[in-house]
Amino acid sequence: MVNLFDRNAPKKPTNLTVNSDLLSKAKDLKINISAVLENALAETLIDQKRKQWAKDNAQSIDNYNEAIQSFGVFSDSLRSF
Q: What is the domain range of residue 67?
């Protein structure tokens, strides 16, 4: 998959607002909050990019599926099932 962001970009301090009890419990368990946030943001970015690609290409996908419904595919005559 193509990199959607530069994994080697420098880190940037950021202020966040987080549920205080959740933050306290995460710190008690020595959870690396920055790493968790980066992973969650990366997954969210990937998910949003997939959704945007599907939206941007919906018409082409529909056209392709209609053509396959109408004309089939080359291998139809070669299948034994």
A: 20-71
pTM greater than 0.85 (yes/no): no
C-alpha to C-alpha distance for 77 and 74, rounded to whole angstroms: 7
d(CA 69, CA 7): 42
Does any domain span residue 41?
A: yes
Token reading at 65: 């599926």
pLDDT, tens digit, for every residue of 49-74? 999 999 999 999 999 999 999 988 87
pLDDT at 1: 53
Nearest-angstrom CA–CA distance, 18 and 34: 12
Question: Is the Cβ–Cβ distance between 33 and 23 less than 8 Å?
Answer: yes
- How far apart CA 44 and CA 50 sit, in angstroms, is 10
- Cα gap 40→26, rounded to integer Å: 15
